[in-house]
Amino acid sequence: MRSLDEILSYTKDLAFDLNFKEAKKWKAENKGRVLVGYLPIYFPREIVHAMDGLGVGIMGAGDRKQIIKGDAYYQSYICHLPRGIMEMALDPNLEDFDGFIFPAICDCVRNLSGMFKLIKKGKFQRYFDYPQNFDAFIGGEFYRQELYKIIEDIKKINGANLTDQKLNIAITLYNKNRRMIEEIYNIRQQYPWRLSAVETYHIVRAGLSTTVENHNHILEEVLVHINEERGEPMDNIRVVISGSFCEQPPIGLIKSIEMAGCYIVDDDFILGSRWFESDVDENTEDPLGALVEAFLTKSTFASCVSDLGNPKGKRLVELVKRRNADGVIFSAASFCDPALLDRPELQKECEAAGIPHINFQYHENTGQFKVIKEQAGTFSDSIKLWA
Amino acid sequence: MAEIKEAIKENSMVIQKDMLAGLFKELSTAQETGKKVVYTFVPGNLTELILSFDMLPVYPEINALQSGMRKKSAAYIREAEKIGFSEDVCTYVKCDIGMMLTGNIGPTGEKLPPPDLLLLSYTGCFTFLKWFENLEKLYPGVPVAMLHTPYQEDGKITSDQIEYMVKQLKDDVIPKMEKVSGKKFDMKRLSKMMENSAKAEDLLVKVLESAKHKPSPIDAYFAGVYYIGPIFTAFRGTEAAVNYYTELYNEVQERIRLGLGPITPEGELKEEKFRLVVEGPPNWTNFREFWKIFYDMGAVIVASSYTKVGGVYDLGFRHDPDEPLESLAKYCMGCYTNMNLPQRVNLLADYVKEYQADGFLINSIKSCNSFSAGQLMIMREIEQRAQVPVGFIESDLVDPRYFSYANIKNRLESYFQMLGQRKVIMAQEATI
Fold first, then answer.
1. Is residue A252 part of a domain?
2. Which of A162, A165, B51, B308 is deepest in the core (most CB within 10 A)?
3. Is B84 close to A343, i.e. CB distance below 8 A?
4. What burial class does residue A111 get, using C-beta atoms within 10 Å of its C-beta: 0-12 exposed, 13-18 middle, 19+ buried?
5. What is the mean pLDDT of chain B?
6. Is residue B94 part of a domain?
7. Number of independent structural domains in chain A
8. ipTM of the shown complex
9. Is B377 in contact with A115 (Cβ distance < 8 A)?
């Protein structure tokens, strides 16, 4: 078994490899394999796995790539994520990808799907609509049709046939993946010093660029290590981060929050990898139906899904209580309509529940964290002194 | 700033003004008369269905744009920002919520009634979903009917998408309307209204397509926003709408017969110098000044995407009395911002050609990602395909902080100079 330092070094590189070398290497090993890139937030990678493919998360260029061409496609008042992705699309970063999925998160990502169509990037470019009706016979049927479209897209490329057996295997693997990620968060809830938020981020994000089998192996090893004592407890407060589900915060921002005295005990950074609150049914005769049913009934709360009847604010408060957190940091990307339009109601719910909160905005390539660190530090001090 | 003169009005404008005044009067007395009120959106609206239950629709975007035109939006936006809405987000939402927080006084100065039903038929704009989640919290206990409109991802409307929408209408939307209104759904009544819808739609298309004449008898953007008013909002499906569009059509025909240009707020445009296709919504806070920059330069907008936001009728869609629910589904999915980017590019490139435009201009709106995200690529594509000069300006819907008159005027003047120069060069080349 590798040492934790070796794993952390590996996942740090893998998480931010914007050339996706490992995924491309995997594809090159077998002629029938396909690579399908998907944007935040959630996409059922299980179906790609069952079609002899690999779903690769494209979370933006972050602060790891200079944006030159991408900026020419977007006005100043549009978030940063799509310009980084356009830059990668126009550079060789996304070569060898067979298709791209644009989940229904906002109008920017939706329209980016059309831009990929216009530049003919990949063999298919598909906007992936989430149902906003949660009746199994209405929204469920619609969602099933959405999944069929992707299955057909992949089949046209590699001729693969989706079988129940293959999909059940994929579901089992991803269930295991989600369970182990959750286990890491549970351990961190009790012992947040054993694995920093940045290390956790790298480990989870690495899973977007490699096979689920390899990522499960990584997670198994990490769990062994963090079940042992490691690091030193600090006099930090415990916070939940909310609003960073699409355009990802720069690592410097996550580090600054921790260095300012806040243990991040839960977050929505790589929310798609933690989408379901319990397992998708395994070994059923209708595994596609199991994925549909899971989306309708087991999804976590997110800004891209209508919360009528099950308000996000209440679910955030429950999460804060479950994680025994002291407060919430609302950290959203600038110009992110879904996160920023949710924020007032989420704040109101926190206030009603007596949960302290602060907020700030960032770009994925923000380079100055002094103000954020001071703000988070003051938040931490105020809770330690007066809460 | 430009000097604004008293606006000149045609008969159709007077008719429309009376229609709107009547609606807002009815809304202001809804609680006394017992009429039920439905808040909903313009793109993908279900006006005929609402009216078939004798309920009254309220369109928050219309209230917001009216607030912008009446210089009230800045204060409303500040109210919403005070309670935590970011400066970055859609100003229609903030204006609407600010208006509600300060008494919900509508455009005519009369108080708007609270909703009895929130009908979220959201089409082509993700923000609508967030908007109504916020309204649901502002009006606790008010039922919400959700109609999810699938995007034209593949550039077409498919049978399974229609089925999905019809199922939502039958299983969720209509039962909630029956409950709120206390009336049974009447398919025949809905069907009858759709006959009126189709008549008005035919007339609207004829009015908009009149801009193919030279000179164009209409401005299909600045005046166009008035032309679409009744059909995009509370009157589609009514005889009043048919009467309005008949009057408007006759006026336009008369202008064509007399060889007249479009009516501007300062009278007829005497000389059509430039014909433009415009993409994106207008700015509402400085609407007259914005328009004046164009008509002062002899620029006429011959086609625009904004006048298709509540239905791209010129592509052939009509509400169909023979299949009312299916046609509501098709209507919702067919609205402009629910079309994918390649479809939008094709439509705009066709407009440039069919309307013999000299140029293509984008008014990019800071608030509206549904329109704005991708517009710079649309601009490049149109430039390549249509081979006309393209222009790009930026403003906002209802936040006056984002309307810079001098910047916009400078840019447009440079753009018109370029168009003028090009015309001279092309004329010279034609004589060689």
1. no
2. B308
3. yes
4. buried
5. 95
6. yes
7. 1
8. 0.95
9. yes
